[in-house]
Design brief:
Blueprint (H helix, E strand, L loop, with lengths): L24 H25 L2 H4 L14 E7 L6 H18 L2 E6 L13 H12 L5 E5 L3 E3 L6 H4 L3 H7 L26 E6 L2 E10 L2 H10 L2 H5 L5 H12 L1 H4 L2 E3 L2 H4 L1 E2 L14 E3 L11 H18 L1
Helix pairs in contact: 3-12, 4-7
Length: about 325
Protein backbone atom coordinates (compact mmCIF):
# COMPACT_ATOMS: atom_id res chain seq x y z
CA UNK A 1 0.00 0.00 0.00
CA UNK A 2 1.30 3.35 -0.91
CA UNK A 3 0.68 6.51 1.10
CA UNK A 4 0.56 10.03 -0.44
CA UNK A 5 3.56 12.04 0.54
CA UNK A 6 3.01 15.57 1.92
CA UNK A 7 3.91 18.41 -0.46
CA UNK A 8 7.51 19.43 -0.24
CA UNK A 9 8.34 22.84 1.13
CA UNK A 10 9.84 25.13 -1.46
CA UNK A 11 13.09 26.80 -0.73
CA UNK A 12 11.65 30.11 -2.04
CA UNK A 13 9.20 31.76 0.39
CA UNK A 14 6.01 33.24 -0.99
CA UNK A 15 5.99 36.96 -1.79
CA UNK A 16 5.46 39.35 1.24
CA UNK A 17 1.92 40.44 1.77
CA UNK A 18 1.29 43.34 4.15
CA UNK A 19 -0.70 42.50 7.17
CA UNK A 20 -4.05 44.04 7.51
CA UNK A 21 -4.24 46.82 10.12
CA UNK A 22 -5.42 45.69 13.45
CA UNK A 23 -7.12 49.03 14.08
CA UNK A 24 -10.56 49.27 12.69
CA UNK A 25 -11.67 52.49 10.98
CA UNK A 26 -13.62 53.64 14.02
CA UNK A 27 -10.58 53.43 16.25
CA UNK A 28 -8.47 55.47 13.78
CA UNK A 29 -11.12 58.22 13.79
CA UNK A 30 -11.02 58.36 17.58
CA UNK A 31 -7.25 58.79 17.55
CA UNK A 32 -7.57 61.73 15.13
CA UNK A 33 -10.12 63.41 17.37
CA UNK A 34 -7.86 62.93 20.39
CA UNK A 35 -4.88 64.41 18.49
CA UNK A 36 -6.85 67.45 17.37
CA UNK A 37 -8.21 67.99 20.87
CA UNK A 38 -4.69 67.84 22.28
CA UNK A 39 -3.47 70.40 19.76
CA UNK A 40 -6.37 72.69 20.62
CA UNK A 41 -5.65 72.54 24.35
CA UNK A 42 -1.94 73.16 23.82
CA UNK A 43 -2.77 76.22 21.73
CA UNK A 44 -5.20 77.43 24.39
CA UNK A 45 -2.60 77.01 27.12
CA UNK A 46 -0.10 79.03 25.06
CA UNK A 47 -2.54 81.88 24.48
CA UNK A 48 -3.47 82.06 28.16
CA UNK A 49 0.05 81.77 29.53
CA UNK A 50 1.92 84.13 27.18
CA UNK A 51 2.85 87.59 28.58
CA UNK A 52 -0.08 90.00 28.82
CA UNK A 53 1.82 92.73 26.95
CA UNK A 54 1.85 90.55 23.86
CA UNK A 55 -1.85 89.82 24.08
CA UNK A 56 -2.89 93.43 24.60
CA UNK A 57 -0.27 95.12 22.47
CA UNK A 58 -1.51 98.28 20.74
CA UNK A 59 0.46 99.87 17.89
CA UNK A 60 2.46 102.78 19.25
CA UNK A 61 1.41 106.08 17.64
CA UNK A 62 4.11 107.69 15.55
CA UNK A 63 5.70 110.56 17.45
CA UNK A 64 6.64 113.52 15.19
CA UNK A 65 10.25 114.61 15.57
CA UNK A 66 9.49 118.31 15.14
CA UNK A 67 11.26 118.72 11.83
CA UNK A 68 10.01 121.28 10.95
CA UNK A 69 8.45 122.56 14.18
CA UNK A 70 5.62 124.34 12.31
CA UNK A 71 4.14 124.31 8.81
CA UNK A 72 2.52 127.65 7.95
CA UNK A 73 -0.41 127.10 5.56
CA UNK A 74 -2.03 129.86 3.49
CA UNK A 75 -4.49 129.52 0.61
CA UNK A 76 -4.04 132.03 -2.21
CA UNK A 77 -7.28 132.91 -4.01
CA UNK A 78 -6.54 134.85 -7.19
CA UNK A 79 -10.24 135.58 -7.69
CA UNK A 80 -10.40 137.40 -4.36
CA UNK A 81 -7.01 139.12 -4.11
CA UNK A 82 -4.78 140.94 -6.58
CA UNK A 83 -1.56 139.30 -7.74
CA UNK A 84 0.54 142.07 -6.22
CA UNK A 85 -1.16 141.60 -2.85
CA UNK A 86 -0.67 137.82 -2.94
CA UNK A 87 3.03 138.26 -3.71
CA UNK A 88 3.27 140.35 -0.54
CA UNK A 89 1.50 137.61 1.43
CA UNK A 90 3.93 134.95 0.14
CA UNK A 91 6.91 137.15 1.00
CA UNK A 92 5.59 137.59 4.54
CA UNK A 93 5.03 133.87 5.13
CA UNK A 94 8.36 132.78 3.71
CA UNK A 95 10.38 135.35 5.67
CA UNK A 96 8.70 134.45 8.95
CA UNK A 97 9.13 130.70 8.34
CA UNK A 98 12.79 131.12 7.43
CA UNK A 99 13.54 132.94 10.68
CA UNK A 100 12.36 130.00 12.79
CA UNK A 101 13.13 126.99 10.63
CA UNK A 102 9.47 126.50 9.71
CA UNK A 103 8.09 125.36 6.37
CA UNK A 104 5.32 126.91 4.30
CA UNK A 105 2.56 125.40 2.21
CA UNK A 106 1.16 128.07 -0.10
CA UNK A 107 -1.76 126.44 -1.89
CA UNK A 108 -4.00 127.89 -4.58
CA UNK A 109 -7.71 127.46 -5.00
CA UNK A 110 -7.95 124.78 -7.66
CA UNK A 111 -4.96 122.76 -6.46
CA UNK A 112 -7.20 120.06 -4.95
CA UNK A 113 -10.32 118.17 -5.95
CA UNK A 114 -13.05 119.51 -3.67
CA UNK A 115 -15.75 117.21 -5.07
CA UNK A 116 -17.92 120.17 -6.05
CA UNK A 117 -17.58 122.09 -2.77
CA UNK A 118 -16.89 125.87 -2.76
CA UNK A 119 -13.28 126.95 -3.18
CA UNK A 120 -13.01 128.09 0.44
CA UNK A 121 -12.88 124.42 1.46
CA UNK A 122 -9.34 124.41 0.06
CA UNK A 123 -8.28 125.53 3.53
CA UNK A 124 -9.14 122.17 5.09
CA UNK A 125 -7.54 120.08 2.35
CA UNK A 126 -4.39 122.21 2.41
CA UNK A 127 -3.93 121.56 6.13
CA UNK A 128 -4.41 117.84 5.54
CA UNK A 129 -1.87 118.04 2.73
CA UNK A 130 0.60 119.73 5.07
CA UNK A 131 0.42 116.77 7.47
CA UNK A 132 1.12 114.43 4.57
CA UNK A 133 4.04 116.39 3.14
CA UNK A 134 5.61 117.14 6.53
CA UNK A 135 4.80 114.12 8.73
CA UNK A 136 7.42 115.09 11.32
CA UNK A 137 6.14 118.61 11.98
CA UNK A 138 4.75 119.37 15.42
CA UNK A 139 2.10 121.87 14.37
CA UNK A 140 0.19 123.14 11.35
CA UNK A 141 -0.78 126.79 11.51
CA UNK A 142 -3.36 128.01 9.05
CA UNK A 143 -3.29 131.78 8.49
CA UNK A 144 -5.75 133.28 6.04
CA UNK A 145 -4.42 135.34 3.15
CA UNK A 146 -6.26 138.36 4.57
CA UNK A 147 -3.56 138.79 7.20
CA UNK A 148 0.15 139.17 7.91
CA UNK A 149 2.60 138.04 10.55
CA UNK A 150 3.69 141.22 12.29
CA UNK A 151 6.01 140.07 15.08
CA UNK A 152 8.77 137.75 13.82
CA UNK A 153 10.17 137.24 17.34
CA UNK A 154 7.23 135.12 18.50
CA UNK A 155 7.37 131.36 17.95
CA UNK A 156 4.21 129.29 17.76
CA UNK A 157 5.59 126.44 19.85
CA UNK A 158 6.60 128.82 22.67
CA UNK A 159 4.23 131.78 22.44
CA UNK A 160 1.09 129.63 22.18
CA UNK A 161 1.43 125.83 22.11
CA UNK A 162 3.64 125.17 25.14
CA UNK A 163 1.47 123.34 27.68
CA UNK A 164 2.06 125.84 30.50
CA UNK A 165 1.31 128.73 28.16
CA UNK A 166 -1.94 127.14 26.99
CA UNK A 167 -3.00 126.67 30.60
CA UNK A 168 -2.78 130.47 30.94
CA UNK A 169 -4.37 131.33 27.59
CA UNK A 170 -7.34 129.00 27.18
CA UNK A 171 -10.84 130.16 28.05
CA UNK A 172 -12.69 127.57 30.11
CA UNK A 173 -16.43 127.05 30.48
CA UNK A 174 -17.35 129.72 27.91
CA UNK A 175 -19.92 129.37 25.08
CA UNK A 176 -18.28 127.87 22.00
CA UNK A 177 -20.29 130.12 19.68
CA UNK A 178 -20.96 133.45 21.41
CA UNK A 179 -22.96 134.88 22.91
CA UNK A 180 -25.31 132.19 24.17
CA UNK A 181 -24.36 128.74 22.88
CA UNK A 182 -25.35 126.10 25.43
CA UNK A 183 -22.23 124.12 24.44
CA UNK A 184 -19.25 125.37 26.42
CA UNK A 185 -15.52 124.72 26.45
CA UNK A 186 -14.32 122.10 28.92
CA UNK A 187 -13.51 123.48 32.37
CA UNK A 188 -10.99 120.75 33.26
CA UNK A 189 -8.96 120.69 30.02
CA UNK A 190 -5.17 120.86 30.43
CA UNK A 191 -2.76 122.50 28.02
CA UNK A 192 -0.91 119.24 27.40
CA UNK A 193 -4.15 117.69 26.04
CA UNK A 194 -5.01 120.47 23.57
CA UNK A 195 -4.77 119.61 19.86
CA UNK A 196 -6.72 122.51 18.31
CA UNK A 197 -6.35 126.21 19.10
CA UNK A 198 -8.53 128.96 17.64
CA UNK A 199 -10.33 132.17 18.53
CA UNK A 200 -13.76 133.77 18.44
CA UNK A 201 -14.93 137.07 17.02
CA UNK A 202 -18.32 138.75 17.19
CA UNK A 203 -19.64 136.40 14.49
CA UNK A 204 -18.58 133.15 16.15
CA UNK A 205 -15.58 130.85 15.78
CA UNK A 206 -12.89 132.15 13.45
CA UNK A 207 -11.11 129.75 11.12
CA UNK A 208 -8.91 132.52 9.73
CA UNK A 209 -6.06 131.67 12.10
CA UNK A 210 -5.95 128.31 13.85
CA UNK A 211 -3.35 125.78 14.97
CA UNK A 212 -3.55 121.97 14.89
CA UNK A 213 -1.13 119.66 16.67
CA UNK A 214 0.16 116.90 14.39
CA UNK A 215 -1.05 113.39 15.25
CA UNK A 216 -3.82 110.87 14.75
CA UNK A 217 -6.36 113.23 16.29
CA UNK A 218 -5.47 115.97 13.79
CA UNK A 219 -6.14 113.60 10.89
CA UNK A 220 -9.43 112.54 12.43
CA UNK A 221 -10.44 116.17 12.93
CA UNK A 222 -9.62 117.25 9.37
CA UNK A 223 -11.29 114.18 7.84
CA UNK A 224 -14.41 114.87 9.90
CA UNK A 225 -14.43 118.55 8.94
CA UNK A 226 -14.08 117.70 5.26
CA UNK A 227 -16.77 115.01 5.44
CA UNK A 228 -19.08 114.80 2.39
CA UNK A 229 -22.16 115.58 4.50
CA UNK A 230 -20.74 118.93 5.62
CA UNK A 231 -19.35 119.82 2.19
CA UNK A 232 -22.72 119.23 0.56
CA UNK A 233 -24.76 120.98 3.26
CA UNK A 234 -25.66 124.53 2.32
CA UNK A 235 -23.97 126.30 5.23
CA UNK A 236 -24.06 130.07 4.83
CA UNK A 237 -20.31 130.35 5.44
CA UNK A 238 -19.32 126.93 4.11
CA UNK A 239 -16.39 125.45 6.04
CA UNK A 240 -16.56 128.11 8.79
CA UNK A 241 -20.08 127.15 9.82
CA UNK A 242 -19.28 123.47 9.33
CA UNK A 243 -16.50 123.91 11.88
CA UNK A 244 -18.92 125.44 14.39
CA UNK A 245 -21.26 122.52 13.86
CA UNK A 246 -18.75 119.71 14.41
CA UNK A 247 -17.19 121.42 17.42
CA UNK A 248 -20.58 121.64 19.16
CA UNK A 249 -21.86 118.19 18.23
CA UNK A 250 -18.72 116.06 18.46
CA UNK A 251 -17.41 115.82 22.04
CA UNK A 252 -14.30 114.08 20.71
CA UNK A 253 -13.38 117.34 18.99
CA UNK A 254 -14.58 119.72 21.70
CA UNK A 255 -12.56 117.80 24.32
CA UNK A 256 -9.32 118.66 22.49
CA UNK A 257 -10.08 122.28 21.57
CA UNK A 258 -8.95 125.48 23.26
CA UNK A 259 -10.31 128.96 22.60
CA UNK A 260 -7.87 131.79 23.35
CA UNK A 261 -8.04 135.59 23.23
CA UNK A 262 -8.38 136.86 19.69
CA UNK A 263 -5.38 139.15 19.73
CA UNK A 264 -2.98 136.29 20.50
CA UNK A 265 -3.13 134.86 16.95
CA UNK A 266 -5.97 136.67 15.17
CA UNK A 267 -6.03 140.43 15.79
CA UNK A 268 -8.12 142.51 13.38
CA UNK A 269 -7.18 145.78 11.71
CA UNK A 270 -10.40 147.30 12.99
CA UNK A 271 -12.62 146.27 15.86
CA UNK A 272 -13.28 146.46 19.55
CA UNK A 273 -10.75 146.60 22.36
CA UNK A 274 -10.31 142.82 22.60
CA UNK A 275 -9.84 142.22 18.88
CA UNK A 276 -8.11 145.27 17.39
CA UNK A 277 -4.42 144.95 16.58
CA UNK A 278 -1.82 146.52 18.89
CA UNK A 279 1.90 146.85 18.27
CA UNK A 280 3.66 143.65 19.31
CA UNK A 281 0.79 141.32 18.41
CA UNK A 282 1.73 138.30 16.33
CA UNK A 283 -0.81 138.77 13.53
CA UNK A 284 -3.08 141.33 11.91
CA UNK A 285 -5.98 140.34 9.67
CA UNK A 286 -8.48 142.20 7.48
CA UNK A 287 -11.32 139.67 7.19
CA UNK A 288 -13.77 142.06 5.53
CA UNK A 289 -11.41 143.46 2.91
CA UNK A 290 -12.36 143.34 -0.76
CA UNK A 291 -10.53 142.55 -3.98
CA UNK A 292 -10.53 146.16 -5.19
CA UNK A 293 -11.57 149.66 -4.22
CA UNK A 294 -11.15 151.70 -1.04
CA UNK A 295 -11.75 148.66 1.16
CA UNK A 296 -9.38 146.38 -0.73
CA UNK A 297 -6.96 144.22 1.20
CA UNK A 298 -4.05 145.92 -0.52
CA UNK A 299 -5.24 149.39 0.55
CA UNK A 300 -6.10 148.46 4.15
CA UNK A 301 -2.86 146.59 4.73
CA UNK A 302 -0.45 149.02 3.07
CA UNK A 303 0.73 150.73 6.26
CA UNK A 304 1.13 147.41 8.07
CA UNK A 305 3.04 145.85 5.19
CA UNK A 306 5.60 148.62 5.47
CA UNK A 307 5.72 148.06 9.23
CA UNK A 308 6.34 144.31 9.13
CA UNK A 309 9.04 144.75 6.50
CA UNK A 310 10.89 147.20 8.76
CA UNK A 311 10.56 144.91 11.77
CA UNK A 312 11.62 141.80 9.87
CA UNK A 313 14.66 143.59 8.45
CA UNK A 314 15.79 144.63 11.93
CA UNK A 315 15.56 141.16 13.53
Amino acid sequence: MHFALPPRKTSQPPPYLPRASRLPGLRRSRLKVIALAGLFFLTLIYLVSRPSRSRNAVPTPRVPKGNPPVVLVTVLDETKYSKAYLETVKENRMQYAEKHGYQTLLAKVGDYDLAGAPGSWTTVVAMRDALTKFPDCHYVWHLDASGFVMNPKLKIEEHIMKAAKLDELMKKDVPVVPPDSIIKTFSHLKGQDVDLVLTQDKEGLSAGSLIVRNGEWARFFLETWFGPLYRSYNFQKAEAHALEHIVQWHPTILSRMAIIDQRVINAYGKGGKEEEYKDGDLVIRFPECTAAGAQSCETQSQVFVQAWRRVFAST
